[in-house]
Structures are given as structure tokens and as C-alpha cells.
Amino acid sequence: MNRREFVTLIAIAGMESSLPLCAASNSEDASGGWHKYVRNPVLGGQYGTCFDICVLRLQDKFRMWLSWRPKQSVAISDSTDGIHWSAPQIVLEPNPSSGWEDDINRPVVVERDGKYHMWYTGQISTHEPTKNGYGNGHSAIGYVTSEDGIHWTGRTKVLWPELPWEDVAVMCPHVLWDAKQKYWRMWYSGGEQYEPNAIGHAISNDGLHWTKDPSNPVFRPDPGHAWEQQRVAGAQILQHGGWFYIFYIGYRDIDHAQIGLARSKDGLTNWERCPANPIIRATGTGFDADACYKPYAVLSDGKWMLWYNGRNEHLEQIGLATHDPRNLGFRS
């Protein structure tokens, strides 16, 4: 499969009320009031690598769509508390006959008007050597719909690499419905296959036909911060308090990644990094000793919960971090 796909999920966060979200804390493995769950990981282990999740709060439970590497598929898992999860169940399998779905992963799911919409990454890999030694291949983004979030139909390739900055891969879609403008907005990662390099933006009226932003990429690595100096990818974007917040993976180098937070008024320009970045850090020991990837945050019962993938050598598992209170404002 494409990049090493380090399970990059953002942990749920619970913060001390006296510490604003983006003020530094004394924790060595989280910052800005985010706290890792002490019994991490919450999913993985016996199931092999589980990574790159999307979580929705559905009435009395949480439902997680995740990448399940041993099965090269998208699976679901349910939980009543966001901590204890059911065994993964495959809901979308590879489709090698399509020519671009040897492996599928990195889903995002949106529930709108009684229907579930999923965008996901389809990958085809080759074994040709490349300059970085990590193998070759390419990725594109597909789309399916469902009435129940389990049974999916209408598989269609909707976004693929076309521009120089996208190189051989577009992947890791995150999609929001813009109720004011009446169109879908997608933020996606593009660049190298092993790990993408930056984050682009596109819009669509129907979820199938997309127009890429002419200013792409809209979010780039900041060479002034060593922890994200090489590349940024795997973003989740949410709207809160008049801002677009981006939770993202920052790469110090190809093998070491942590999770950051930034905000923008339009989700495209003038991004302001959180001064506490990286907010979720590799521990040096445990399940996320080497890297933290692909955050996904949900506001639930007055608390931010953030899931992410942590990697220790070749195994990725899903962890959680929490943050209180509801406020995601920076210092001003």
C-alpha cells in the first residue's frame, strides 16, 4: 500500500479548566490542555494495524470508520463511550478490477439528509524502486453512498493527481457540507505516495465532480518549526466559533510525525498555528513511540475527544486524547 500509512488518528482531549487550549502544558506527550487516555491504545493490537479513522456521534453511540491494513479494507467499529470499541467489521473491500483500488483506506464519512456519504483513498502499488527507496504506486479518491453506513454503493473515482504539486497521489480526504454556499468542500493531501506533502482544497455540487482551488496547496509545512518542517498531511477540518480549525499531521522527516492544530477564517488562507504545537506528541515509549498520525476530533458532552493513530516500529494502533472545556479558541 501507499505510504507506510502510519495509523494517524487524533486522540481525545481533556484539559484542565485553568489552562487555555493553546497554552503550553507540562505534559511531555501532549500540549495545550490535551491529555492522552492513560490506557491507550483503544483499538488495534490483536486486529493488526488499524489507522486513519473517522468518527461520528450517532445518538447513543460512536461509530468509527477505519483503515484495516491486514484486510486492505475500510471497516467499522462501535462504542458507547469512545474508549471501548467492538471488533472491526469490513464494510468496503478492495476492488483490483477497477485499476485503482488494490487497497482502500483513509475514509471520511458525512451524514446528510438521511444518507451517508463516504470519500476514501484507493491505491495501486508497484514494486519499482524510487529515489527515496520506499516503492512506487499512486492513489486517487473515491466516493460511495449508503443508507445505513454499512452497505455502500456507487463506487466512483472522483479525484486523482493532475497537478505538479500532487505528484502521484491524492489521498486522505476530509469533506464538509457548506450550508451557506450549498456545496461540498474537500481538503485532501497530495504529493508522494509513501507520505503526501501538502494539503489542497476542492469544491463540488454533487460530491462527484470537483473543482480544485487554483491556489492549491492551501496548507503547507512550516520550515520554521522543526517538528513539521518536511511535510503536512492527513487533515481534519471542523468549524467552531466562527473559525475553521485544522487538525493535521506534521512531519519532521519521513518517519517521525506528530499532530498539530491551526485555524483560519475561511479554511484556505492566513492559517494561525497553535503556539502549543505539536498538541499530540510521540511518547518515546509505548504504542505511539515513533509517530502520531491522522487526528479526528469530536465535541461530545462538553468535551473534545480526539482519536489518532500511534506507531511503534511497524504497528499502528488507535489512541485517544481529551480536552475540556468546549472552547477551541486560541489566546485571543
CATH superfamily: Glycosyl hydrolase domain, family 43
Cα distance spanning the termini: 42 Å
- Please, how many domains? 1
CA-based shape: globular
The CATH architecture designation is 5 Propeller
Helix content: under 10%
Tally the beta strands. Answer: 20
* Rg, alpha carbons: 18 Å
Task: Describe this structure in a few short sentences.
The chain has 332 residues and is mostly beta strands. Helix content is 0%, strand content 49%.
What does this structure look like?
The chain has 332 residues and is an all-beta fold. It has one domain (35-323): 5 Propeller (Tachylectin-2, Chain A). The protein is 0% helix and 49% strand. The chain is built from no helices and 20 strands. It has strands at 35-36, 50-58, 61-68, 73-79, 89-92, 103-112, 115-126, 136-146, 152-159, 169-178, 183-191, 196-204, 211-212, 231-240, 243-253, 256-264, 272-273, 291-300, 303-312, 315-323. It has a four-stranded antiparallel β-sheet with strand order 1-20-19-18, with no helix packed on it. The protein is globular and about 45 Å long. Mean pLDDT is 88; it is low at 1-26 and 129-135.
Secondary-structure topology with pairs:
Elements: E1 35-36, E2 50-58, E3 61-68, E4 73-79, E5 89-92, E6 103-112, E7 115-126, E8 136-146, E9 152-159, E10 169-178, E11 183-191, E12 196-204, E13 211-212, E14 231-240, E15 243-253, E16 256-264, E17 272-273, E18 291-300, E19 303-312, E20 315-323
Antiparallel strand pairs: 1-20, 2-3, 3-4, 4-5, 6-7, 7-8, 8-9, 10-11, 11-12, 12-13, 14-15, 15-16, 16-17, 18-19, 19-20
